[in-house]
Automatic annotation (TrEMBL):
Keyword Transmembrane included in the entry's annotation: no
Superkingdom in the source lineage: Bacteria
Protein name: Phosphotriesterase-related protein
Source organism phylogeny: Bacteria, Bacillati, Bacillota, Bacilli, Lactobacillales
Organism: Enterococcus saccharolyticus 30_1
Cofactor info, note text: Binds 2 divalent metal cations per subunit.
Binding-site residues for a divalent metal cation 2, renumbered to this chain: 123, 156, 184
Family listed: Belongs to the metallo-dependent hydrolases superfamily. Phosphotriesterase family.
The keyword Transcription regulation is assigned to this record: no
UniProt cross-references to InterPro entries, sorted A to Z: Metal_Hydrolase, Phosphotriesterase
Keyword vocabulary terms for this entry: Hydrolase, Metal-binding
Residues involved in a divalent metal cation 1 binding: 10, 12, 123, 241
GO molecular function: hydrolase activity; zinc ion binding
Length: 291
């Protein structure tokens, strides 16, 4: 359930990718600093965060619940598996039915050994320019779980690649495209690439806002302007996908508030309408999650 207010649709309250990244920076476990930033977001009108940290990201549902309790922000947690190189051996051995049953259990009963129910499936991922056999198992299981529970699916595209193929897969599996968002599409740098996905009926996410080492935010804004011009204001979300301690303001990073404090004013100054901003941050997430 999405509360009235601003929603960040693709974030991580805590995440640990350090076993593969070989850097403690990718173990986002700074509880007090995260609480401080989330309180700041609350003061700016943020009421919901969709936390897409799943099984192989070293998720910690009780930690996330505690952050929610201390900040007043409604944090929606996820079930599912990530991209191939992060997958546990369990995925190799498990059947599609076992994977979908696990997701359904976490949606209907609770994540892991808790009673915290998952509100979204994801972020399920594909590798750069391809979908591996194990990723295909997960995508198939996610569709089965969606068909049974009716909750949305959120995806990871590595550097924005393989988005068209994800959509084609979902169509082939007869998934509900109106309940699917393709992630990281802003990393593609191509408006035409994104428009082709929007033509199919899925949602898309500009969810790496502020990561200018990948794409300049002004390019993201130019793409958003064209998407608005083409009439797809109802199908886009904004978020930041913060995963590192160094992203947080206490370490001199841009912090979770960058989206509202810097990106939104920049977008407005460069021709994105306030109406479109409100749709991406307020109206579209509520429709996607609640309808």
């Amino acid at each position: 359930m999405i509360l009235e207010g601003i929603t960040y649709m693709h974030e991580h309250t805590t995440i640990d990718l350090s076993r593969l990244k070989k850097s403690d920076d990718t173990n986002l476990n700074c509880f007090d600093e995260t609480v401080s930033e989330y309180k700041n977001l609350y003061d700016k009108g943020v009421r919901n965060i969709v936390d897409v940290t799943n099984l192989d990201m070293r998720r910690n549902p009780l930690y996330v619940q505690k952050v929610a309790e201390q900040t007043g922000i409604n944090i929606i947690q996820a079930t599912g598996f990530y991209q191939d190189k992060f997958l546990p051996s369990f995925v190799t051995e498990a059947s599609i039915d076992q994977l979908s049953s696990l997701m359904i259990k976490e949606i209907e009963e609770g994540i892991a050994e808790t009673t915290i129910k998952a509100g979204i499936i994801g972020e399920i991922g594909t590798s750069k320019d391809r979908m591996t056999d194990r990723e295909r198992k997960i995508f198939t299981a996610a569709v089965i779980a969606q068909q049974q529970t009716k909750i949305p699916i959120t995806t990871h595209t590595t550097l924005g690649t393989y988005g068209h193929e994800q959509v084609a897969f979902f169509k082939e599996q007869q998934a509900d495209l109106s309940k699917i968002v393709i992630g990281h599409v802003d990393l593609s740098g191509s408006t035409d690439y994104i428009l082709k996905m929007l033509d199919e009926g899925v949602y898309v996410e500009f969810d790496t806002i502020g990561k200018e080492n990948y794409q300049p935010d002004l390019l993201r804004i130019e793409m958003l302007k064209e998407i608005e011009k083409r009439g797809y204001q109802d199908k886009v979300f904004l978020s930041m996908d913060i995963t590192r301690k160094s992203n947080l303001s206490y370490q001199g990073g841009i912090g979770y508030s960058y989206l509202l404090d810097t990106f939104v004013p920049m977008a407005l100054e460069n021709g994105v309408s306030q109406t479109f901003i409100d749709r991406m941050l307020r109206i579209n997430p509520k429709k996607f999650m609640d309808d």
